[in-house]
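Example 3.2
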Amino acid sequence: MDQTFWTYFFVVASFGLYIGIAIWARAGSTDDFYVAGHDVHPTINGMATAADWMSAASFLSMAGLIAAMGYGGSVYLMGWTGGYVLLALLLAPFLREFGKFTVPDFVGDRYYSSTARVIAVVCALFVSFTYIAGQMSGVGIAFSRFLGVDFNTGIFVGMAIVFVYAVLGGMKGVTYTQVAQYCVLIFAYTVPAIFISLMLTGMPLPQLGFIANMKGTDVSMLSKLNETVTSLGFTEYTSTNKSMFDVFAITGALMFGTAGLPHVIVRFFTVKNARAARFSAGWALVFIAALYTVAPAVGAFARFNIIDTVNEAQYVEGDDYADATAAIEAEGGKAVPVWFKTWETTGLVGFTDKNGDGKMQIRADANENEVTVSNDISVLASPEMAQLPGWVIGLMVAGGLAAALSTAAGLLMVISSAISHDICRRTLFPNMSDKTELRIARVAAAGAVMAAGLMGIYSSQLAFVAQVVAFAFGLAAASIFPIIFLGIFWKRFNKEGAIASMLVGLVSTFWYIAHFKFVDKDPTHWFLGVSPEGIGFVFMFGAMAVGVAVALLTKAPPQDIQDLVEDIRIPGTRSPHGIADAGMAPMPAE
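Structure, written as tokens:
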């Protein structure tokens, strides 16, 4: 059985499983559709949260960034993991005690304002659509290489699958589907890493393999990699070109952005109470660590194998690849590897013979470098680089698709609920029935699927998957985190301060990212030397400062709102579903 068979087998089997779960767990009410009935076990919710969290950026692109950036890529590991500590300690229990369906729901009631609710919806949509664009790009990459379809067709296939189980099952179906997707993606990520670690170092644990000695030598894997990359003109793999402050800012943006992501926060509304929310965050960290501790090894192995198999290889053109390769190897030469030729058809790798010698040279100097390799293929192509069995490659594809689709589904639920619940039910049509709201939620999810696919097609031309996703974290850190944090811990914070904070954070961060990604691409013009990926952390403090200043200059919140803030800090004092049971009343006039 060849690689194509195994790829189709794992992809079709996993998709069938997801759709079957969605049918089994079909949402029958708005409570099921938005928050899975508030009845998910903390361990199950932790696993679903991990799948929701470990998107195409984590599965496909994070190790690729580590492979390309070396030590500098660790900001993604530190930031994304640290964000869950913030969530567990600062936000999750209190948000669950408040008991709403969505982040805009919390904002609308905490700040007693329809305007604040609508602005929170806009922030959530900006963040979610930016994030989901990266997921759909990841789907297109996987399908285009392994299923023999073009990039855009791959995205449309992914859209169809997400449409079925997100629109049908709602959050209830998505939750249990994500549990299955976590099992698929973690197995798919670790098995190839174990194989490659054994091949290169003889160590079965990848976490130790990339710091162990190379097989048959007394030289460590990282030392060998440092020696290899520096000989080609690159900086040491264990160093970084980024400034310390930029590294700090990116880490902060990813960390506080995690604590402000709507699709992550809503997962803590699906458990019974605040205590379960805290345990759920802890379990999520455990499940995430199973992949994140392996990622540095995957990145190091990928960087080593790319250079080892490609650099100084003789490029072969035409249909006589097999015969030409055999002839080159018979003379003691090295031919272009099979994996490079197969990935070349996707446009994600390429060779330009600048010196006319027919050999592929990887160099740090852009004028001398002849090989381009997208960071986004480092994980998906790693089994092929190592010439692993076809079933391992097929499993890797299924895992990559599971990672992208699980997060896409969670984001679609945020978009759907923002439109149906926060805009329609809570703002425009307060007398709407549950049945009508559920119908609108499904229509909104369907529309969001189509919009996400189009954004995925466009975003693939702009940056790597993880970079596209990083922008979403900056937007969340600057616009959503401040109002949630201050809304929980400062009862004097009012609606005027919240509105000002959201607008300043969203507009400034979006402008900075757009300006320095599309207009002025000169890094020397960055504010304080901070890249677009990290600017959300800097502007977060500006947004908080503006919000606090405006709040102090305007009227304090009503006493019942201040009492509510005091109340949610004491777990167990509210009803099992928080105040959501009475949360359907229209907003008071402003």
